[in-house]
Amino acid sequence: MKVVIQRVSEASVVINNAKVASIKTGLLVLLGIINEDGQEDIDWLCKKIINLRIFPDENKVMNTSLLDTDGNVIVVSQFTLQASTKKGNRPSYIKAAKPDIAIPLYETFVNTLQTYLGKQVQTGEFGADMKVHLVNDGPVTIIIDSKQKD
């Protein structure tokens, strides 16, 4: 699993001109899934995400986590995170999990994140054409791949 985490002062997801998710301070998490991903990847990433010390403390130093700040989260599925650009100019998405594998893993990821966070996590809609709006705070953007833990 690969995630792109963006610290936001606000973010929203719009599908067919309808806002389906909206937060103020928190994280926008873009999630890419491959066939080899499983519960171990989900648990590791969810714990990492909620405990990342990327929010400012009273001294304006990035020293507090999502848990410390009571921030909110939007998770958006994004198969293009698993693109391979090694050959040619057209990305290959062969590594991205197909919906029959990806949807249950995406739903488990969201549910696990909610459990660890202790509150509801908002989402986009798997496979939909989404318009993601955000104000990246900092900017702070972090990429984490559960297959590269070392």
Short description:
With 150 residues, this protein is of the alpha/beta class. The protein has helices at residues 39-51, 66-69, 99-117; strands at residues 2-15, 18-23, 26-32, 55-56, 62-64, 72-77, 122-123, 130-145.
Specify the helix fraction band: 10-25%
Radius of gyration: 15 Å
For the termini, the CA-CA separation is 15 Å
| CATH hierarchy: architecture | 3-Layer(bba) Sandwich
Largest sheet: 6 strands, mixed
Portion in strands: 35-45%
Shape: globular
Uncertain regions spanning at least 5 consecutive residues: none
CATH topology: D-tyrosyl-trna(Tyr) Deacylase, Chain: A
Quickly count the helices.
Answer: 3
User: What number is the mean pLDDT?
Assistant: 96
CATH H-tier superfamily:
D-tyrosyl-tRNA(Tyr) deacylase
Alpha-beta content class: alpha/beta
CATH class: Alpha Beta
How many structural domains in the coordinates? 1
Q: What is the string of helix and strand elements?
A: EEEHEEHEHEE
What is the strand tally? 8
Please characterize this protein's 3D structure.
The protein is an alpha/beta fold and about 150 residues long. Helices cover about 25% and strands about 35% of the residues. It is built from 3 helices and 8 strands. Strands 1, 2, 3, 6, 7 and 8 form a 6-stranded mixed beta sheet that branches. The protein has a two-stranded antiparallel ribbon with strand order 4-5. A hairpin with a 2-residue loop joins strand 1 and strand 2. Helix 1 crosses helix 3. The protein is globular and about 45 Å long. The model has no long low-confidence stretch (mean pLDDT about 95).
